[in-house]
Amino acid sequence: MASLNLGYWVQSYSMSNQVSSISKSFPLLRSLPFNPLTTQSSSTLKKVNFTSLPSITSVLTKEDIVKEEEQDPQKSSFDFNSYMLQKASAVNQALESAVSLRDPVKIHEAMRYSLLAGGKRVRPVLCLAACALVGGRESMAMPAACAVEMIHTMSLIHDDLPCMDNDDLRRGKPTNHKVFGEDIAVLAGDALLAFAFEHIAVSTVGVPPSRIVRAVGELAKAIGGEGLVAGQVVDIIKFIHVHKTAALLEAAVVLGAIVGGGCDEEVEKLRKFARCIGLLFQVVDDILDVTKSSKELGKTAGKDLVADKVTYPKLMGIQKSKEFAEKLKMLTDAIELLQGFDPAKAAPLIALANYIAYRQN
């Protein structure tokens, strides 16, 4: 099974005064930028000692630590490294079990090839974190989390096809159609899409049927003619970003809140939170596409430029795009929306928002 290794996630700390003031409401969080996961074998993952991973405290300056201890001596840090490692591992195991190698073998090989090829697993972890935030158990949200990742993988397989972006590299490996052919790649994506809904309906346990039906409806809306698919068709930048990337991120968070038993007010707060980080995710993605290498990204760099896509760097230039991303209130707005929730349970979502804002691939 392909799994994930965080390596050394945490980089130097740099946040605005605005974010710093908001983070005081969440004493368990030390908001930091993070580096993404890299793929590694499951055998390596099993040997990782969680306590040996670099803690958030280890990258703060001595002055930072002293100031924080003076403000709150009892403050306990949130170990985002271990959290993401554990959650990504749990998601990978669930995906491995859900899409087993069975007849017809060829199509299941193709499904598993892309689904288990690694990736940051941000969307399923967001789903699990949202479920926990409203008081749900991880087991309640895992089928929904896996379904979101299946649909995300489907979108990548189809995006890479010659009739779409015509790409040869995804997650550091040859794209699905390069390995299995265009016909099988199309069918593998279709199969993942269909199975995502089956998996939620059949595998979700401990959740009232009404919540499951609501979750299925949310997911269908997120990826339909007004959601992910619309974003793949339309060439208007904000429409693309809100309806393609943000739509699936929103679905991941909202599904977690629904199956976890969140009230309508909590679900809508988390919906707005997800929209903020979803737009920010795509702005950062646009910038990385023209500033990082293919090796760093794990996919073909600069393809948006070659395809003459409407992106922020194309409209504003790279430097202006970076400034725009830094000035966006999306991050601070997202964090503000989590005020009122249990700070300890909100810490993973805030850390994920920070990761999205400061990721390097």
What's the gist of this structure?
The protein has helices at about 15-25, 40-45, 60-70, 80-100, 105-115, 120-135, 140-160, 175-180, 180-205, 210-225, 230-235, 235-260, 265-290, 295, 305, 310-315, 320-325, 330-335, 345-360; strands at about 1-5, 40, 170, 175.
Could you name the key traits of this structure?
magnesium; geranylgeranyl diphosphate synthase activity; 19 helices; 361 residues; globular; metal ion binding; mainly alpha; two-stranded antiparallel sheet
Task: Give your account of this protein's structure.
The two termini are 23 Å apart. This protein has a single domain, classed as Farnesyl Diphosphate Synthase (Orthogonal Bundle). The strands form 2 sheets. The protein has a two-stranded antiparallel sheet. A two-stranded antiparallel ribbon has the order 3-4. The model is unreliable at 1-75, 229-236 and 238-243 (pLDDT under 50). It has 361 residues and is mainly alpha-helical. Helix 1 (17-23) packs parallel to helix 18, helix 7 (138-159) runs antiparallel to helix 12 (237-259) and helix 12 (237-259) packs across helix 13. The protein has 19 helices and 4 strands.
